[in-house]
From TrEMBL:
It comes from Acer yangbiense. One of its GO terms (biological process) is RNA modification. It comes from the Eukaryota. This is Pentatricopeptide repeat-containing protein. PPR repeats lie at residues 146-180. InterPro entries: PPR_At4g14850-like_plant (IPR046960), PPR_rpt (IPR002885), TPR-like_helical_dom_sf (IPR011990). PANTHER family: DYW DOMAIN-CONTAINING PROTEIN, PENTATRICOPEPTIDE REPEAT-CONTAINING PROTEIN.
């Protein structure tokens, strides 16, 4: 389409067109076309715009050309908050701390962008880098962490299984931890099966009485993993399955073994599972025997 626009339609490309094309190449992973576009922009002197250069950094980083992406970033003459943050996020795994340290504590990088950096580090699971930036902002640049800062750091530590360190960070807060902080800790405890600290986080979440169904489901799943149904009684509606047999209703909960015929039901399900496995093998044998012979006539 781009070639047709340039050759047949006679449309002149500019920075806006190039940014759109570069972003498309970055999202599609089209390495060859991306390099071709970059060369075309250099020839037409369209690669000097800061937005174009930032999009090139993102494209080359996503395509694995970290060295080329770093060169493009260093070639940006007038770096602004957009170029700094987006380039940092693109090159986060080959981070050049010295350059970013120079502007991290200044007004060039606003509070929203700093939160984005911590959020990205959290989702990438880069605990060492996240701890570095957090300590740098707090200790060296004397930035008072907001609730979002703490939430991102707790999420970063909890995702990596360091729930003890995450709880210590929460206890060091000068203000009362908000719901997002405790949810981040609970999620990490649930994923890593940290039951003791998870129970502390779950009870804190219950005290804050969240309305969001996703958070309620997280709490329910955690206590179900602990087989602790009493904590949910009277708080949330516990979902269960109902089966009617001869006019009688039988209720079943996840991990619940209280049914008077639990062992018999488990034995029957095991037998059905083995039968289905045997049938699957029988079907495979039947299909193989029905395949036409490949021997010559």
């Amino acid at each position: 389409m781009y070639k047709r626009m340039m050759q047949k339609e006679g449309i002149e490309d500019d920075e806006i067109v190039m940014v759109g094309l570069v972003q498309a190449c970055a999202n599609l992973g089209h390495l060859k076309l991306g390099l071709s576009l970059h060369g075309c922009m250099i020839k037409r002197n369209l690669d000097r715009d800061v937005i174009v250069q930032t999009s090139l950094v993102d494209m080359h980083a996503k395509n694995g050309h970290m060295v080329l992406a770093s060169h493009v970033f260093k070639d940006i003459s007038c770096k602004n908050v957009v170029s700094w943050v987006h380039s940092f996020l693109a090159l986060i795994k080959t981070v050049w701390r010295r350059e970013f340290d120079q502007v991290l504590g200044t007004t060039v990088i606003d509070m929203y962008s700093k939160c984005r950096v911590l959020s990205s580090l959290s989702h990438l699971g880069l605990m060492e880098e996240g701890q570095y930036w957090f300590d740098l902002m707090v200790s060296e640049y004397k930035i008072q962490p907001s609730e979002k800062y703490y939430a991102y750091m707790v999420d970063l530590l909890a995702r990596g299984g360091q729930v003890e360190e995450a709880l210590e960070l929460i206890n060091s807060m000068k203000t009362e931890a908000v719901l997002a902080v405790w949810v981040a800790l609970l999620s990490g405890c649930y994923n890593h099966k940290k039951l003791l600290i998870g129970e502390v986080a779950a009870k804190k979440v219950l005290e804050l009485n969240p309305d969001e169904l996703g958070i309620q489901a997280l709490v329910s799943n955690f206590f179900a993993m602990k087989e602790n149904w009493d904590e949910l009684a009277g708080r949330y509606c516990i979902t269960f399955s109902l089966v009617e047999v001869n006019g009688d209703l039988h209720a079943f909960l996840m991990e619940d073994k209280s049914h008077h015929q639990h062992e018999n039901l488990k034995s029957m399900l095991d037998n059905l599972y083995q039968d289905m496995r045997g049938m699957r093998g029988l079907v495979r044998v039947m299909m193989e025997t029905k395949q036409p012979s490949s021997s010559p006539q």
